Queue: 3 jobs
Job 1
Amino acid sequence: MKCYVGGSQKPHDHEFVEACFARNAKEAKSIMWKCGNLSEECDGDYMGTRIIRKPEYDRLHDPKKDAPYIVADQQTLREMGWRMECDDICDSCGLSAFEGEYPVCEECGQCNECGCTQTCGCAI
């Protein structure tokens, strides 16, 4: 399975609104249109969609899944660099707090995965 992201050719707020794993771009477009937010983002204009291949994220495919699917797992989306609005960003890895699911320390600026300095005294 290969990773694809989809959005509108004329984006409103976000460049891409869905990520999925599929065998090819045609299959990716179809699943994102039918099962995701792509139709809404493109105001119902199927020809106004934009599907981009993201080979750097192929490694994030869930090996237990052999059918195409939309990425809904927050950890996977975070690893792809997706962010929630107004999220804190880790100074070390550059990944989002994802609405507090992966907290970023206010003192040292790092997420749990990157660790905190021994002297910051943070509570995360």
Job 2
Amino acid sequence: MGNLNNRHNFGFQSLLHVNFIFKKKYRVDETAKKMGVHKDTLYRWVRGENPFPIDQLANLVKATGDLDFLEYFCEPCGYSLIPKIKDKGTAKMFSQMARIMQSAIDLEE
């Protein structure tokens, strides 16, 4: 299969197969239950018997906690994931950093 990190060469279904079957990072029965789908349905998606429905992507990411599934679609479009900041202290720090960065690139002199 080659370099597993070069996932854009073999498709999303293969990413599912590698993570669920080859690497055994996730269990189909547990993940399917968390996603609210039957385990046979998830097995069909993982084995490539049925195409993975894009509207299930959020449920897959929530069930596994694996952002690689979401990044698979973001990277080719030129986007990166930035998680929401929920901690007030962290949010304040990032806000201050943004102000500092803005002042450093301020084009008005």
Job 3
Amino acid sequence: MKEQVEQIELLNQRLTDEYGLDTSTGQPIFRIVWANDQLEKRLVTETDLGVQLMYPEVLEMKKYSYLKDVYVLERLVEIDERELPGIKLSYEPLWVYKDAANNPLPPIWDATKFIVDTLYAALGRKSLRKYVEDTSQEAKDARIDKIQEELFGNETEVTDALTYREGIVVPSSKTRES
């Protein structure tokens, strides 16, 4: 686990180096976080049991109650101050690191950078020109396969079973000859 935390710290440092800090707060524009650890303040008008409150209250609640045991790429954005008075910026989810079967994936720099650059291209801030190369179809297919592997991982039943410690490795029955 310590190794994974160090990797996330390195990825967050790379995000800061590549995309910068908010000039007013000094917070990173992008960050990768563990979904289970994130809390946020919300303005609520009823209790968990559905009882209507006389006055809305601000409560600290799990930010990603719908996500478990995954990393999330977040972006610092301005929010409507009417939702939470006094709070002008919030980290909002941009990407959840999981495959098509909702299995968690470890964050990888190339995929993370691609996601952020795609967002910036959609906003008209940066071009994705560096991702477009005039080469053979085989090279294009190889790049697409690499990006898909980084974004969605190896989704075979055997690797998933081994990853989640549900599989068994049987050593080879061959013996070495001296």
